[in-house]
Structure formats: C-alpha cells, structure tokens
Specification:
Elements: E1 4-7, E2 10-24, H1 25-28, H2 34-46, E3 55-66, E4 71-74, H3 97-104, E5 114-116, E6 129-132, E7 135-138, E8 144-148, H4 149-161, H5 165-170, H6 172-176, E9 180-183, E10 188-189, E11 193-197, E12 206-210, E13 217-221, H7 228-231, H8 243-257, E14 263-266, E15 274-280, E16 283-288
Parallel strand pairs: 4-5, 5-8, 8-9, 13-14
Antiparallel strand pairs: 1-2, 2-3, 3-4, 6-7, 10-11, 11-12, 12-13, 14-15, 15-16
C-alpha cells in the first residue's frame, strides 16, 4: 500500500483517516443491477473495493502535494468532535489517526500553505477546523483555504434555509477567521496548480490539476467513488445532486486523462487509490500505482 508517489517535480502523499465499509453497492448506485454486480464482483473483491457482503469499501483520505514552491493539502476528511449523528463512524470522533498520519508523512499542521477543497461535503472539510476552548478554529494555522465560489455559494444558500452542520463547523469558521479564498474556475497557484471544473456530484465540484506545463497529477474528489465507475461511467451514486451531469463529467474526465501519464488521485478508491487511467473497451480502468 503506497502512501507516497513522485511525478514530475511533485511529491504526493496520502493521509488516510478511515478505510472501511460504506454502503451496499446496490444501495449506493441506483443504476446498478444484481446482474451487473455479479459480473464485476470478482475483480471488485480482488481490488478490495467490495467486501464479502457486497458492501463497497471506501477510503477517506487527504492528499498532500508538494510542489517546488508550496505544500498543499487537498480535502481535509472527516475531523474530530463533529456532530454527525447520521454516520456513526464519523460522529464525535476523538481518535488521533489523521494527525498521526500527517506526522508519519513528516508534515506538521504549520507546514500546510493551502488547504483546497474539491467540494464542501462532510468528509472533505472535517479537519479544516478543530475544537479549541469550545470554538472551531483553523487546524492549519498558516494556510489559505481554497473554496470554489459556486460551491461555496450553493452551500451558503442551503445553510441559510436549513443549517448544514459541516458548513457551520468546518467552513464558516474559516471564513470568519479570514483564512478563506473563495475563487473562480480561473484560479491558479503559480504555474503548478489549476482548477478543473467537474460539476454534477455537487453544483460547484472541482478537481485540482498539478504540474508545470502539463497535468502531472489530478485530484478528482468525488467525481467518482468506486473503481466500478471507471468501467461504468454512467453509474452515479445516490448522493449526486445532478446524476446525469455527473455521469457526463465523469466520462469527459476519463477521456481527458485516458492513456496519458497523469496520475489520477482518487478520493475514495481503496488503497493505493491513485493510478493511471487506461482504456478498456468502451470504458476505462484505473491502473493502480503499486
């Protein structure tokens, strides 16, 4: 299980908070049939993407990308002491797994220059903040936190109607601390970091591309959750705000990076989670980096 990759002039490290069973495959993907699941069960289990009860196995992790100029953390996972009653594995966590993972990667919270969120779902913003004397404060004290404008506006509007806990405890405190950069799709950091709009899972979902002059690596966020979706890009999970748009975005993304040297760093595929996109018939596969 590789936790570190080198591509071009980038070093990429994974910090895993949980790698665990999530939802039954047939529940997660409304378009999936028992017959198609049966056809794919063997390779999915071999890839540790599906357990013996046909429950999907997902990894919840951050990627740390070191460019020649900055240390960037993409998607800050689940977090501790957060009220998540609908998700027992995430509710009021107090473990030190994530911070130990950072330390094992040789990273302190003060080393992070940017925290970049592909979108603002609960398992991608949790460690943006930590509880200190009853207040949510930025976990990464020196970092600028990058939120896509359309994504931020969408959740700000939702939160105004009905409180969205992850927005309230993991996004707004960053804005109030004046640590947020709410950016458009033209956002870039020097010549090494760019945004790739990938809407569908959420209205403002983005991927982040890294590399000088070419996309040496891309963090795909929740553009796809399971390797099953590389074989069947039309399968959108029930969480997608716009399943049709998500399916089109996913196929376009896979076409874009198919048979290139770009390392695709997925948010939730089982370890090692990162790989090269290759064509397989009318679909694709993500060839894992060992």
């Amino acid at each position: 299980m590789s936790l570190s990759f080198s591509v071009g002039d980038l070093t990429i490290q994974r910090v895993i908070e949980q790698e665990t069973s999530f939802l039954p495959a047939l529940d997660m993907f409304p378009g999936l049939t028992p017959e198609v699941l049966a056809e794919n069960r063997g390779w999915l289990r071999q890839a540790k993407a599906l357990d013996d009860a046909d429950v999907l196995m997902l990894c919840f992790q951050s990627y740390i990308i070191k460019t020649p100029h900055h240390t960037i953390l993409v998607d800050s996972c689940i977090g501790n002491e957060k009220q998540r009653p609908g998700r027992p594995k995430w509710h009021m966590k107090t473990d030190d797994t994530y911070l130990r993972g950072l330390a094992a990667a040789g990273i302190s919270v003060a080393d992070i220059d940017y925290v970049m969120c592909t979108h603002l779902h609960v398992d991608h913003v949790g460690w943006n903040t930590r509880l200190e004397n009853g207040r949510w404060v930025p976990t990464f004290p020196k970092a600028r936190y990058v939120f896509g404008r359309s994504e931020y506006d969408y959740w700000h509007e939702q939160n105004a109607k009905t409180p969205v806990p992850p927005f309230g405890d993991s996004v707004l405190p960053i804005v109030e601390a004046k640590k947020a950069d709410i950016v458009g799709n033209d956002f870039a950091i020097g010549d090494h970091v760019r945004i790739l709009p990938t809407p569908g899972h959420t209205p403002g979902h983005v991927a982040f591309a890294f590399g000088k002059g070419k996309d040496s690596a891309v963090c795909s966020g929740d553009l796809m959750h399971s390797p099953l979706q590389t074989r069947y890009p039309e399968f959108s999970p029930k969480f997608d705000v716009d399943p049709q748009q998500a399916a089109a975005t996913r196929r376009n993304f896979l076409e874009r990076y198919c048979d290139t040297d770009t390392l695709c760093c997925t948010a939730h595929f089982p370890s090692p989670s990162a790989g090269k996109i290759r064509r397989k018939g009318n679909a694709f596969t993500c060839e894992a980096m060992a």
